[in-house]
Design a protein that fits this description.
single chain, 296 residues, alpha+beta, Jelly Rolls, Arc Repressor Mutant, subunit A, seven-stranded antiparallel sheet, four-stranded antiparallel sheet, 20% strand, transcription, DNA-binding transcription factor activity
Length: 296
């Protein structure tokens, strides 16, 4: 096991850490933990006692309330598990959530430990991936770094809340069997690796062993959006990331995203973010690129 990095706010309200898990486990202390599995899978089990063991698969996440020390381990040491853990102080949570928010109060009243904010593990989407990437690659220190990381943690909390609320409204009965979920995972991988060619829904469905109706229904159930909506979301988040790094003009980014005309890309970008990509290029001259994510 190796620990890549860890950041702590001045007030100690949250702590960010990245773990690579192989055969050596990690101990997590009691409290609120946001866990994001970007690769492999993990098990969360109590160090002592008889509380339940919880597992998360690749590209899943959840918010947990731990009442004691827990062991974070990799059940499949042959594949390294990449885990992002954000520990939250209760003061941090209550500052952003109203006291009368029923869903969150129910979270703390649930029986047994560890308590999960969402009854089913949530799936990483392009928005969350972009935020995690921004946190992991931030090199800001001091007050500015704390402020930047805090804004990203709040964003993650909001996105996690939104996804959990969406699953709650769909009902637990809407959860897919592992075989069907695996098909949707496969569809996602094909979708993001198809390059300039774009498969039809029917073709994509046949490639993963299902039909078009089930593909549309189950993909939205797993990822919270439509097939092409997910693809567009992925492209827009990736495009913004490239533009923030600088050195690439809008036309070049449009071509990388598979657009034949930069004007079509700019229209899609504005529809998604609310501003034109050229605005990022202009502001990039005067501001630190990472702080543009806070300004916009």
């Amino acid at each position: 096991m190796t620990e890549e990095g860890e950041q702590l706010t001045v007030k100690g309200e949250f702590e960010y850490a990245v773990y690579e898990l192989d055969s050596m486990p990690v101990t997590l202390d009691a409290g609120l933990k946001m866990l994001f599995v970007t690769q492999g899978c993990l098990c969360l089990e109590p160090l002592l006692g008889f509380d339940l063991q919880v597992s998360l698969k690749s590209r899943q996440h959840n918010l947990f309330h731990l009442n004691s020390d827990y062991i974070l381990s990799n059940p499949n040491p042959e594949e390294t598990a990449m885990v992002i853990c954000i520990s939250l102080n209760m003061d941090f949570i209550t500052r952003y959530l109203p006291d009368d928010l029923d869903a969150f109060q129910q979270f703390f009243r649930k029986s047994g430990f560890p308590r999960r904010f969402s009854a089913i593990n949530l799936h990483l989407n392009p928005e969350i991936n972009a935020v995690l990437h921004a946190i992991e690659n931030s090199d800001h220190k001091g007050f500015g770094g704390d402020l930047y990381i805090e804004s990203k943690v709040v964003e993650l909390l909001a996105l996690q809340w939104s996804l959990a609320d969406s699953y709650l409204k769909k009902g637990i009965n809407a959860v897919l069997h592992s075989a069907e979920r695996a098909k949707m995972e496969n569809a996602r991988e094909i979708l993001l690796s198809q390059g300039e060619s774009q498969y039809s829904l029917r073709t994509l469905a046949h490639m993963v062993g299902t039909n078009e109706y089930n593909l549309k229904k189950n993909f939205k159930l797993v990822f919270g959006t439509t097939v092409y909506g997910y693809l567009n979301q992925h492209k827009m988040e990736e495009a913004r990331s490239i533009l923030l790094k600088g050195g690439t003009n809008v036309a070049e980014v449009a071509q990388k995203m598979g657009y034949k005309h930069a004007t079509h890309f700019s229209s899609a970008f504005k529809k998604y973010f609310g501003y034109l990509p050229a605005r990022l290029k202009f502001l990039w001259i005067f501001f630190d690129p990472e702080f543009l994510l806070i300004l916009l």
